[in-house]
Amino acid sequence: MKKQRHYVSLCFLLSFCLLLNACTVVYKQTGDVLIGYAEEEATPYMLASDDVGLGCSMVESFAPFLLSFSRITTTPEQLAILFYLVAGNCTEFKAWEEELRYLRAIHTKNAIEAQDARITQQRYLSQAAQRQLIGYRYLNSAYPESDAECPAFNTDDDEFYWLVGLISGLQAVLNDIASSGTVNVPLNMAAKIGRASMCLNNEKWWGVPEAIQAAILITIPSDKSADKNPKQMLDNSLKIAKQQGMKLSHILAAQIYLGLGDTEKVKQIIRDHADKTVHRSGNQAYKILNEVSNLQIQQFSDRLWTKATGKRTPIGKMGSFWDDSVKEIEIIDIDDML
């Protein structure tokens, strides 16, 4: 009887092991199919979309599920680079709203509200930096030699993900600084990112590589270069951005000049960005990048307006400012009084 029970237990154990192995095979096949679908269909669809909110929902919901398959199959490193950058940007959007709340509180002299808004803003910036740092680490995993020399890009997609990873790393550095260093992003990353951006053709990628270099030269004092004029580099990047209709360089330029306290230069960037007559239609395959740029430039405008007037940019006033020399007669909408 004992011997029979032993055989039954053994058979059960073997059957259970076979079932587990079968499940693992099924999971791996499912993961390969889903990752392939995400690379070939879902991600291009998202990049060509003009709805940033839906893009945020997709990335924040889908990324943990998709990347969980890395436990049983090949890690989708390129997708992770993009997803973590976007997820970080989505968290930045929340930080922006808290900054506007802080500025409104300052305007009304509400110290408690201002302190709470600043604390919440820094928490969101810390989370954004954490996500973007993970994206940059996936870049180094996908291209192990990235710190030493330029990788051999096989396709334009490789170059695109390289660019995205560098932006993710730079934003991680800047957001960590803004959140008082809570994530401890290594500052020496900036120099590596600057060198790595030289691996890309500046004209081909909308002037962004040169804008990255300029941002690092200006914001990281230890990375100064006597033979480069970062402000001239920025101007060149903005010129290329206008010609090609891709606006990522506007974000970096506005960030830099705002940090330098050059409000007039920031206003000019916003005016140029808002002037649709000087911009070509950008690459439709990367439409969402322009939509993110539009939101970020809108935020820079809202920041200036809120600091000066206590409220964000009025509807239809993007590209104009409260202190413009030509004053328009403001018509009071009854809806504003309700």
Characterise the protein shown here.
The protein has 338 residues and is mainly α. The protein has a domain at 225-278 and 287-307. It has helices at residues 2-47, 52-67, 77-107, 111-142, 156-178, 189-197, 208-219, 230-244, 248-259, 263-274, 287-309, 334-337. Helix 3 (77-107) runs parallel beside helix 5 (156-178) and helix 9 packs parallel to helix 11 (287-309). The longest helix is centred in the N-terminal third of the chain and has 46 residues, at 2-47.
- Helicity range: 55-70%
Classification by helices and strands: mainly alpha
From the N-terminal CA to the C-terminal CA, the straight-line distance is 85 Å
Summed over residues and divided by their number, the pLDDT gives a mean of: 84
The fraction of residues in strands falls at: under 5%
What count of helical segments does DSSP give?
12
As residue ranges, the low-confidence spans are: 12-20, 328-332
Principal-axis shape:
globular
Largest sheet: none
- Count of distinct strands: 0
Order of helices and strands: HHHHHHHHHHHH
- Rg result: 24 Å
Key descriptive features of the protein:
mainly alpha; globular; 70% helix
Itemize the secondary structure elements and their pairings.
Blueprint: H1 2-47, H2 52-67, H3 77-107, H4 111-142, H5 156-178, H6 189-197, H7 208-219, H8 230-244, H9 248-259, H10 263-274, H11 287-309, H12 334-337
Helix pairs in contact: 2-3, 3-4, 3-5, 3-11, 4-5, 5-6, 5-7, 6-7, 7-8, 7-9, 8-9, 9-10, 9-11, 10-11
